[in-house]
Automatic annotation (TrEMBL):
It holds the Pfam family TPP_enzyme_M_2. Keywords: Thiamine pyrophosphate. GO terms for molecular function: 2-succinyl-5-enolpyruvyl-6-hydroxy-3-cyclohexene-1-carboxylic-acid synthase activity; thiamine pyrophosphate binding. It comes from Skeletonema marinoi. This is Menaquinone biosynthesis protein MenD middle domain-containing protein. Residues 90-252 form the Menaquinone biosynthesis protein MenD middle domain. InterPro entries: DHS-like_NAD/FAD-binding_dom, MenaQ_synth_MenD, MenD_middle, THDP-binding. GO terms for biological process: menaquinone biosynthetic process. Gene3D superfamilies: 3.40.50.970, TPP-binding domain. It comes from the Eukaryota.
Amino acid sequence: IDQVKMFSSSYIRWFRDIPPPSDDVPVSLALSDANHAVTLTKQMRGPVHLNVQFRENLAPDGGPIRNDNRVDSVTKFNNLRFTDASGFLDWSRSGNRWLNSHYSNNNSLGSTMEIKDLIRKSRRGIIVTGNLRDSEHVGQGTDSLSSLISQFAQTIGFPVVAGVQSGALRRESPVIPYAEHLMKNPMIAKGMQPDLVIQLGTPLISTEIGGIIKSNPAVRHVLVQQFYPHERADPDHTVTHRISSNIGTFLKGLMSDIESSGTVNCYSELTPLVFLGNELRKQMPDIIREAGSNESTGSGVTLTEPEITRAISEVLNEAEGKSTPMSLFLSNSMPVRDGEFFLYPEGNKGATSLQPLLRNDAKFPFSVSVNRGASGIDGILSTATGCGDSSQPTTLVCGDVTTLHDLNAFYGLTADHTPSNSAQTVTNANRLPLTTVIVNNGGGAIFSFLPIAKHGQDVGFEEYWGTPTNNFSFKQGASAFGLPYKSATSFEDFKNAYRSSIESGGPGIIEAKVVDRSTNVEVHKKITQGAIRTVDSIINESSVTHGVRLKMKLPIKRYTDDRGNVSK
């Protein structure tokens, strides 16, 4: 009998092949698997199949492995390392469930009361947002959900780490600008120590916030998102409370309960991070520019990948209010990560040091879409073409390798009205409003950030990981589909080309030729170092000139009102 998936998939609700106990597999994985199995059994009303693997020696005997005469076949198992997982010690001593799950179809009052109690007891709470998913909003647009999350954050006095997938939320005042760069600062990463994390939506792109959560085993991690049977949504096994509900519906109910009970005296000692982020926001354009100022290739290329994200943000700021809302589609690999790091709206230049970004002055794309998952970079252009097939102008940012994987998708920008026997250039009469920005770094840039890159030709790095694309002409490719084409090698060239494409109202391709991949790694390092130095300087200066300290209790409710004025 083949034990793996021995029952029909039409009969069981879920299958899991449980790995054998190992020093390399934390106990939190087994506990999370067990919890998920029980959850699906209850929610989907049917059986699950857990195939549990064991190794010889089955009994807890050390020494040689029975019936295995190979070299070094010795049983090794360190139970202390196996159980050294975030949250395990607290769970094993408490007698509580590994994960407290609540669903929209039962005990919604109980879930609201439990989360309200966590908020009331918290002193260092924070809100984290991932992909909010339009399908969950039940009549709410992304913009209205962003406003609701902002209102919730101000009600409980928690700052917000808004992932790039949150789209318009990044223009709201409780959001910590450039949170990824703040959390890379050792002083902040070590000093945050949140006691409550409320996560809205999944997955997260940020690795910094995940590391901070894992390093604080006592943290209560609440995940709120719609119930998806085959989606775990907890890769680090740190979630302690899962609320399977529509995000907007749950937040409205929770806020109503908090306000009706008079429990509005909430705050978070982490709120000064909003101030630090707004101060860093003012310096980031200069930090990004200086990081690439001395970088150039022999061909005169000076454009860097972070500058592409900055230029898009600046142009979208200019375009806001002049046209229909803009959408962005960020490809996997580097574009979505650069979006996470650098895609924030411009600040109010006339604001005082303690004044956050004003809602009416915050200009940002209406929505940001990504296609995260096992497909990787496959099908990105096709997906973005679907997103652009509407009256809402869309910008796709993708890499050169990604483009080659799905090149024929460009035909979808021309096929609707262009005669089959014509190679005519697309006009406004048959356009789809999709601007495609191809970041051409001559291959797969993200692998240059990994340890494998230092081994070079010893592992065939260029051939198997770098995968150069220098022998392909994107200009000729655009011509084959009759699409407008422009190229850019500097920040100003790219910004002008992108602005022109947006204003045209039709499809277009911009090839952004950037510095080489190894230089790109150095540019990112310099930006990180520059941000760390800047934050250190802000902290030191603020403690002297403004009296603002990281441990100061500074609720958002106290220093901003509907007009953006600073409260006394």
